[in-house]
Amino acid sequence: MFDTLLELFVFDVQNSxxxxxxxLTLCVTVVAMLLxxxxxxxxxxxxxxxxxxxxxxxxxxxxxxxxxxxxxxxDLAQQTIFTGLLVFDGFTIFFRLFLLLFLILVIxxxxxxxxxxxxxxxxxxxxxxxxxxxxxxxxxxNHMLILFLGIEMASVPGYVMVGFLKxxxxxxxxxxxxxxxxxxxxxxxxxxxxxxxxxxxxxxMVEIASRMNxxxxxxxxxxxxxxxxxxxxxxxxxxxxxxxxxxxxxPFHFWCPDAFEGAAAEIGGFLSVASKAxxxxxxxxxxxxxxTGQADxxxxxxxxxxxxxxxxxxxxxxxxxLAAYAQTNVKRLLAYSTIAHxxxxxxxxxxxxxxxxxxxxxxFARLDADGDGVLTRQIAEQxxxxxxxxxYRSDIAIIFDQLGKNSITQAEFxxxxxxxxxxxxxxxxxxxxxxxGLLYYLAVYMFMNLGAFAIVAxxxxxxxxxxxxxxxxxxxxxxxxxxCMLICMFSLVGxxxxxxxxxxxMIFATLFEAGAVHWSMWAILLIGGVNTVFSLVYYIRxxxxxxxxxxxxxxxxxxxxxxxxxxxxxxxxxxxVLALGIFVEQLSYTARQVASILF
Amino acid sequence: MFSDxxxxxxxxxxxxxxxxxxxCMTTKRNGIGxxxxxxxxxxxxxxxxxxxxxxxxxxxxxQIFSLFVIVLAAAEAAVALAIALNFYNxxxxxxxxxxxxxxx
Lengths: 599, 104
Known about the structure:
The complex is a heterodimer of chains A (599) and B (104).
Chain A: H1 2-19, H2 21-38, H3 47-71, E1 79-81, E2 86-88, H4 90-113, H5 121-139, H6 144-162, H7 169-200, H8 208-215, H9 227-247, H10 255-262, H11 265-291, H12 296-324, H13 330-356, H14 360-367, E3 374-376, H15 377-383, H16 390-393, H17 397-403, E4 407-409, H18 410-416, H19 420-426, H20 428-463, H21 479-493, H22 499-515, H23 520-548, H24 565-582, H25 585-597
Antiparallel strand pairs in A: 1-2, 3-4
Chain B: H1 7-27, H2 31-55, H3 60-91
Helix pairs in contact in B: 1-2, 2-3
């Protein structure tokens, strides 16, 4: 008995370590960097070479995994590692690849802009890599403990990085505010986790759905009347507050503009993209863990949770866009723009929760257009996800196959949908579509937001300012950077034919489809659309200053020629923004495959 | 006498610590005071975890959770105090209201 257990354990560890290679490589790199520093080798080998080398090796491992999966099938590789603490699937691999690519770009940027000098380089890159390891853990979490540890591991180095410019008053203030809010949010989130795990008797995310079903098996509907339900609501609110802090969603966004203004622009770029992407990956996993195969009483409850998330998302987008108007500091303006973008992306999550929790009776009524109470297989397949590729269209067919008939009444339909396996497949088409939009948006957002922050950082090195009025007429001196800024900002607005437009379109299309499930999604879609118009104004204001104003004679010159490394870097980051707007098929197919793994 | 103590009693202590911590975080102007509030919140959650591991099927997971939280709280406190010291060096105070350069 003991021998078998030991053997299983050894096998699990060996297998897990193999799957964990990218993270391990980053860990080794962190140690290597500190050793290089210890033996005074950093005079000869700058620490960014060590960091870049380690990240490239790690990226190579992640890329090999990705290729292997692409050649076989994404579904095959799903497995839990480290005795179920982490999950290794296509979703994990996608986010690993995403984060590592982004890390490479950020390291390249810091080399160009020289924000950590050689003396501080080792410290800085240790923090940067450590934070990325935390984010990779977040994207593969399968257990509430890893959920919390991942968030903390990503945040704590972030606090220090914000305060990295030690002698600056603003930087120390930003770091202090960030750490105080961050620690508070983490504490509240942990208390929520303790309530939830205690109530459900498990911390394993896979088991959450079935335990929730068991806890609420007796109750007719889940609402404030029930003490257990109140505890769950309290716990969920606390956990979502922790997520909202990481995502800088509206009631918990205070830290974001302050931290970004006080920190160097490179770090603002890193935090705004990487930590958001990881938090969205984790939030998607968390929401899916709750919404797979639920009974109808819980579905109704989750639907309201989804609508609540949507309301916060709409509020966040509106607030971010309105507050950005009054800003005179470019970094602060970009910080408010990240708050708005987090809002747009959260809309996709809210649509995901809503479509996954449509009660079976409502689904039947929606599909049964003529209202005679009988649904035939043909009509069901036609009306259920009519524009989704072949691969997912047969989702609804499972109900007819199980029954062995080609037409079904409402009562039979609801009865069939009580089977968790059926419910699970019923909603996966729409769910995958919602996630696909989110993944695509994140991929575009990585390039366009990094591009904007990188340009701010590179211009700062010449004019020593990040105030908007010092940007007057920069186009006459650095045309390349200004044109890249134009492309990034138009993409942030969401103008075609840029990548931002495609991402936004995908998310809005999902919201439109989710509107058929609950009308409130249409309201959120409308708010999102209006916001896109709002946001145009303040982005244009920046561009107007850069392009149309005359450069004052006494202003510090920012002569960055086109044939120089900084310009080349900006072009390199901006080209994907254009490419993702034109060649949509490749990435959206991968994103769809990755998204459908979660269901 | 001790057999009367049930899960609820532990949860009440945890909730009390949590509320104390939140009140401390929201009312204190002193940075160190706020960090002490955070520690209270974390320990409130820890008591919950330990109690749940004793009385519910959560089992060992709860205890492991609280062990990790203790380690993490120490790490976070170290970072937070370093940042507070840095703030003090620049502002000669750890009153959070003194940080008023970043606004808008």
